[in-house]
Amino acid sequence: MYDLTGFQRDLLYVIAGLEEPHGLAIKEELEEYYEKEIHHGRLYPNLDTLVDKGLVEKGQRDRRTNYYTLTRRGRREIDARKDWESQYVDA
Questions:
Q1: Contact predicate 9/2, CB 8 Å
Q2: Are 73 and 54 in contact (CB under 8 A)?
């Protein structure tokens, strides 16, 4: 996870927290958190990067809608990050 941007890490956390989230649902969650609009040109290339890195799987709900789920590796990366953060934040 060290080679991800903060935005990509946030994408992973949102995907982990929603059941089969689609692009629009992810976008809405992040817009609420960031309090600003997230453009498609930022969202989808970063989702594709997470897919390419093997952290997220992309499925197709219908011809226009893709959904995203964490892979086992993605879950392990989040768990490892939480463990690392807890050394500093919870101490």
A1: no
A2: yes
Nearest to 8 by CA among 25, 30, 28: 30
Per-residue pLDDT of the chain (91 residues; tens, 9 = 90+): 889 999 999 999 999 999 879 999 999 999 999 999 999 999 999 999 999 999 999 999 888 889 999 999 999 999 999 999 999 997 5
Q: Hey, where are the domains in the chain?
A: 6-86
Q: For residues 69 and 59, give the distance between their C-alpha atoms in angstroms, rounded to a whole number.
A: 8
| Cα 30 from Cα 43, distance rounded (Å) | 10
User: Per CATH, is 6-86 categorized as 3.40.50.150?
Assistant: no
DSSP 61-77: SSSS-EEEEE-HHHHHH
Name the residue among 7, 89, 87, 91 with its Cα closest to residue 49. Answer: 7
